[in-house]
From TrEMBL:
Cofactor: Zn(2+)
GO biological process: methionine biosynthetic process; methylation
Descriptive protein name: Homocysteine S-methyltransferase
InterPro entries reported in the protein's UniProt record: BHMT-like, HCY_dom, HCY_dom_sf
Organism: Desulfosarcina ovata subsp. ovata
Length: 313
């Protein structure tokens, strides 16, 4: 069996941070339809750093680099493809600066995103092309992060390309899939969790998660993840209404663009779902798009209540 590098984590459920893009918007930062939250690295780096700090303050064990929007093709649309390396390094520096101010150890996860649009398994490119792109970004992030997080993967093939590139760096690697809107616990591609995990069986991936899906979808998926692997499993949900199958951030359809948020997933309601994930075997919980520091604070309270010796240290 392949060796699986592990980040230095406590022996209890680990708390991820919450969303970055919507949080930037909540704080008045205008985002791009091409590079999304990465616009904050250019226009408001101090706000990006402060968001990282706020998630740390409320208890996050791991914060994620603001690299989800750093995709060469999208940067080219914005006329700044030549800033790819610079902006990846800047995102890492902002995360590290936030951790340096923390009173306790906090890890940094380097985000490796979908390359041709979120939630779109039909747009995933050839593996060779994806592997080249992921290798470039993984190598930029690896020297500055504690683990690499291949997130919002919509298909087994997409995740395989990202994970393969990430594992080549020698850093610990976690993979997280986004799920179908039918709340079946399947991937957006229709593949099962078991099929997705099997696709990575020969790689030293040490965490298997689901993210940017409804809390109910993640509730369905956690038992399937627990049954498919003996590594860390978990989830971090969005607070969106159902996402159309043909959605594009920069599309022209009325259903494209900014996704509406639900009004029934405040911190307390979100934590009820997260408690179900823990009950089902999750050892990693957090928040994705639309979750805020108040959501992560509530998750910290949930973990502390179950592990009183922890007390937020």
């Amino acid at each position: 069996m392949a060796k699986r590098p592990q980040p230095d984590l406590p022996d209890r459920p680990v708390l991820l941070d919450g969303g970055m893009g919507r949080e930037l918007q909540f704080r008045g930062v205008a985002l791009s339809e091409s590079i999304w939250s990465a616009q904050g690295l250019i226009d408001a780096p101090d706000v990006v750093r402060q968001i990282h700090r706020d998630y740390i303050t409320v208890g996050a064990d791991i914060i994620t680099t603001n690299t989800y929007g750093l995709i060469r093709d999208d940067l080219a649309k914005a006329g700044i493809a030549d800033r790819f390396a610079e902006l990846n390094q800047k995102a890492c520096a902002l995360a590290r600066e936030a951790c340096d101010k923390a009173a306790r150890p906090v890890l940094v996860a380097g985000s490796l995103p979908p390359l041709r649009g979120s939630f779109r398994p039909d747009l995933v490119g050839p593996k060779a092309e994806s592997l080249t792109c992921y290798r470039e970004q993984a190598r930029l992030l690896a020297p500055h992060v504690d683990l690499l997080l291949c997130e919002t993967m919509s298909s087994a093939v997409e995740a395989r390309a990202a994970a393969e590139a990430a594992c080549e760096t020698g850093r610990p690697v976690w993979v997280s899939w986004t799920l179908h809107e039918d709340e079946s616990g399947r991937l957006r591609s229709g593949e099962t969790i078991a099929q997705a995990v099997f696709m990575l069986a020969d790689l030293p991936v040490s965490g298997f998660l689901t993210n940017c899906a409804s809390p109910a979808s993640i509730t369905r998926a956690i038992p399937k993840l627990s049954a498919a692997t003996n590594q860390r499993v978990g989830g971090y949900a969005n607070t969106f209404h159902p996402i159309p199958a043909d959605w594009r951030l920069d599309g022209q359809k009325t259903s494209d663009g900014l996704l509406p948020l639900r009004n029934d997933l405040g911190p307390d309601a979100y934590a009820v779902h997260a408690a179900r994930w823990l009950d089902a075997g999750a050892s990693v919980i957090g928040g994705c798009c639309g979750t805020r520091p108040a959501h992560i604070k509530k998750l910290r309270d949930l973990i502390t209540a179950r592990y009183p010796d922890f007390r937020g240290s």
